[in-house]
């Protein structure tokens, strides 16, 4: 079953703030970012098309401004995002330039997807960039977004992007090996789920409760992202981003992470997934 991953051509990869920064200091983990950039550039060298959804703007901005704790006030969050997004992209641009790989920045809000004209423009831009061999680096536009028009987490954003660009595969890099029946850090009897054919009620239950809040967005948001991606026709994998070698390993067909199998929904409508913050029940 994993051999299908060796043939994926258009890939969206999401990486969270915890994977980009040093836990002890909050500073960017440059060696890890360099490895990520090298792997993604090598994928483009193989002829694959890659989109990177990267968190980290608020975290980088907060550190740059000397704030000790995560900001609560909206205006301060947006100030941190404005500072951090520019600094984060500067680092990405420098690292990708070392490998002669051109990148582009795309900042999105939910309004980009809700509005028909904006959505079509975004889609055309993505397709043109990929055709030119450019790696788009995507983040939510935290500088201007509000509660009413925010995706809220980059798991959801990455799934929407995967649907928008007709991706073959979405990879969510988390701080856990994949989907478990319960949080393995508190329950030693938790069972690892290798493959999910159908996202049924049992799978949905694994994304609920305090015990499953792993990673930046929590397991619940990752399962919601899987429903969007698989309905749009993309396979999705949750894998541990501690060692970024997991990306080429996945694309070599190695059995790591949890694979959510695509089941293209002929009635797929992106707006159904954006009308509320929660994924609509079947």
TrEMBL record:
Signal peptide: none
Gene3D superfamilies named among the record's database cross-references: Acetylglutamate kinase-like (3.40.1160.10)
Residues where substrate binds: 55, 142, 154
Catalytic reaction(s) noted: L-glutamate + ATP = L-glutamyl 5-phosphate + ADP
Enzyme Commission code: 2.7.2.11
Span of domain Aspartate/glutamate/uridylate kinase: 9-240
InterPro entries named among the record's database cross-references: AceGlu_kinase-like_sf (IPR036393), Asp/Glu/Uridylate_kinase (IPR001048), G5K_ProB (IPR041739), Glu/AcGlu_kinase (IPR001057), Glu_5kinase (IPR011529), Glu_5kinase/COase_Synthase (IPR005715), Glutamate_5-kinase_CS (IPR019797)
Alphabetized UniProt keyword annotations: Amino-acid biosynthesis, ATP-binding, Cytoplasm, Kinase, Nucleotide-binding, Proline biosynthesis, Transferase
GO biological process, one term: L-proline biosynthetic process
Keyword Cytoplasm: yes
Subcellular locations according to the entry: Cytoplasm
Official protein name in the record: Glutamate 5-kinase
Record organism: Lachnoclostridium phytofermentans (strain ATCC 700394 / DSM 18823 / ISDg)
């Amino acid at each position: 079953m994993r051999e299908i991953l060796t043939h994926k051509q258009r890939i969206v990869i999401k990486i969270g703030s915890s994977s980009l920064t040093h836990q002890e200091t909050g500073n960017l983990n440059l060696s890890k970012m360099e490895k990520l950039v090298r792997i993604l550039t090598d994928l483009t060298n193989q002829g694959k098309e890659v989109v990177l959804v990267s968190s980290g703007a608020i975290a980088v901005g907060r550190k740059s401004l000397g704030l000790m704790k995560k900001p609560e006030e909206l205006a301060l969050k947006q100030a941190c995002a404005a500072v951090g997004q520019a600094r984060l992209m500067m680092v990405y641009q420098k690292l990708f330039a070392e490998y002669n790989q051109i990148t582009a920045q795309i900042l999105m809000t939910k309004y980009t997807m809700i509005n028909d004209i904006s959505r079509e423009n975004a889609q055309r831009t993505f397709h043109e960039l990929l055709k030119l061999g450019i790696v788009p680096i995507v983040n939510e536009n935290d500088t201007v977004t509000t509660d009413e028009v925010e995706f809220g987490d980059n798991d959801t954003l990455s799934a929407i992007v995967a649907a928008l660009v007709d991706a073959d595969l979405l990879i969510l890099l988390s701080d856990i090996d994949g989907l478990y029946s319960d949080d393995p850090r508190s329950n030693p009897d938790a069972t690892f789920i290798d493959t999910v054919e159908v996202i049924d009620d049992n799978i949905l239950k694994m994304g609920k409760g305090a015990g499953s809040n792993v990673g930046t967005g929590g397991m619940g948001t990752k399962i919601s992202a899987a429903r969007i991606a698989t309905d749009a026709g993309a396979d999705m994998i949750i894998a541990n981003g501690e060692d970024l070698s997991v990306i080429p390993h996945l694309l070599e067909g190695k059995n790591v992470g949890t694979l959510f199998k695509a089941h293209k929904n002929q009635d797929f409508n992106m707006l159904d997934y954006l009308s509320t913050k929660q994924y609509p029940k079947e």
